[in-house]
Amino acid sequence: MTTLPAPPERRPLRADRSWLLLAAPFVAASWLPWWGVLAFFGVLLLIRRDQAAEVVRVPLLLLAAGVTVLPLLAEVQLGGENALAAILSFAALFLPVVGAAAVIHIGLNLLEVGRPAGVAWLALLLLPGVLGLAPSPVFGLPAGLGLGLLALLLCALGSTGREERPARRLTGSGRAVWNAALVGGVLAGALALGTLALGPARQTEAVRAAPGAAASQPDAAPQRQSEFPSGEGEGATGRAPAPLSPEATAAGVQLPGADLVLLGGMLLLMSVVFLLWRLPKRVVDGPRRFHWWEVAAVAGMLLLGALLLFYGLSAGGSGGPSTAPAPAGEGGVGGAEGGTLEEASPWWALAFASWFNRLAFLASLLLTAVILIVAWRLRRPTDDDLQVAPPTAEAVSAPHAEALHRVRMAYRSAQAALERCGLGRGPAETPAEHAARASLNLPDLAAPLGTLVAAYAPVRYGGRVTDEDADRAEEAARDIAALSAEYRPPTLPDTPDSSPQETP
Question: What is the pLDDT of residues 342-356, one digit of tens each?
Answer without folding.
Answer: 344 455 556 666 676
